[in-house]
Amino acid sequence: MNTSYARSWEDVAFKKQFLIAPATFTHPVIEGWSLTNVTRGHMLRAHQALPISSAHSDGLALHGLGVFLDPRNPLSDENAILHDLSRRAGTFEQLESLVAELAGRWVLIATKNDQSRIYHDAAGLKPVFFTLRNGADPYVASQPSLLHPVGLDARNESLAHEFELHKNSGSWPIGKMPYHSTTQLLPNHYLELGKGSVHRYWPTRQIEKRTLDEAAEEMLPILRGVISAAHSRNKLLMNLTGGYDSRLVLAAAKPLWGEVEFSTTMRADSPHHDISIPKKLRSTFSLNHRFINPSDIDRVSTLTNEELVRQLMPNVGGMFYDPAIQGTKSAWLAVGGKLALPG
Fold first, then answer.
1. Residue 206 burial by CB count (10 A; 0-12/13-18/19+): exposed, middle or buried?
2. What phi-psi label fits residue 190: left (phi over 0), alpha (psi between -120 and 50 degrees) or beta?
3. For 280-295, what is each residue's pLDDT tens digit?
4. Which of 20, 114, 279, 297 minimizes the number of CB atoms within 10 Å of its CB?
5. What is 276-316 written as a DSSP string?
6. What is the DSSP string of 101-116?
7. 85-99 tens-digit pLDDT
8. 148-155 long-range contacts, Cβ below 8 Å, gap at least 24?
């Protein structure tokens, strides 16, 4: 067992999170975070572990948070991608067309002519939440629970209790959540920072129909480009199960099989095919793959499941659903300092 992955859970509090608020706003919770001016009136506060990139060109200022991947230019890093966006985008509409080509897990703050918009990746993997103060002044954060301890919003306990009793309580319904005044920015929407208004920007026209073969032919080079771009940034770890999604990603990553690590978590409730199919794939294609057992996890984690949940809950606004907390522990164990690419 390689214990080099063993790390303390103490450093996970609001890790890689951010808060956008008026420049005058301060609070001990965000003390020591990096500061970046994003508009005349708003300051970005970011946890030290959150990657930040910037670019400016012809009056367009871009600030990027997180990981940007360009499948058409896999070797481009965040600064190169943002520089290309700022050079090619003369208007917000052109910018929106260009970011549609990007993958990753990111938030983009774009300012032009004193107008600022906040976008995030197409799937909303890097989430954005906001609350309005005095009816207009938006405070923006990576999680609603970051707005709570700094005094900007409070959890609605009665609504939270009602929500948790519901059979579908594993996800927030269409941007709504058990907080008094916080809203989640939905994918393919942007937040206008000055007004606190939300607008949908994609699709701009009716989506063209494709046959399955046409779609596959168009998607394969994009998916391979995303994997190649992720691989160019860091050592890559891919999750492998018996599902179609992880096997699709595995197939698209074929040129990199000799350089990528694969892992599968063995849980008490794992279906048989989630174990047997990875075993067969590992043997057939000689993959650098390992199974992670609960005994391995417990050897490097002294926290009980209940203690771990208590530490994770503040990071995700109380919205935490995992039928097997061992899955979270195993992901922490397996990923280490690598870049994880789940199916």
1. exposed
2. beta
3. 999 999 999 998 876 6
4. 114
5. HHHHHHHHHHT--EEEE-HHHHHHH----HHHHHHHHGGGG
6. T-EEEEEEEEEETTEE
7. 999 999 999 999 999
8. 148/179, 148/317, 149/27, 149/29, 149/314, 150/19, 150/25, 150/27, 150/29, 150/30, 151/27, 152/21, 153/179, 153/180, 153/181, 153/182, 154/179, 154/180, 155/179, 155/180, 155/317, 155/318
Q: How far is CA 181 from the centre of its chain?
A: 23
- pLDDT tens-digit profile, the chain (343 residues): 333 333 454 567 788 999 999 888 888 889 899 999 998 888 999 999 999 999 999 889 999 999 999 999 999 999 999 999 999 999 999 999 999 999 999 999 999 998 999 999 999 999 999 998 766 678 999 988 888 778 888 888 888 888 778 777 766 777 777 888 888 999 999 999 988 899 999 998 898 999 999 999 999 999 999 999 999 988 999 989 999 999 999 999 999 999 999 999 887 778 999 999 999 999 999 999 998 876 665 555 566 667 777 777 777 766 655 555 666 666 666 777 788 887 6
Is cis: bond before 22, omega within 30 of 0?
A: no
Beta-carbon neighbour count of residue 42 at 10 Å? 22
**DSSP summary character for residue 124:** -
Pick the closest to residue 238 from 284, 203, 290 (CA basis). 290
Exposure of 214 in the CB half-sphere (CA atoms within 13 A): 4
| CB hemisphere CA count around 328 (13 angstroms) | 18
The closest of 175, 140, 161 to 318, measured between CA atoms, is: 161
3-state secondary structure of 328: helix
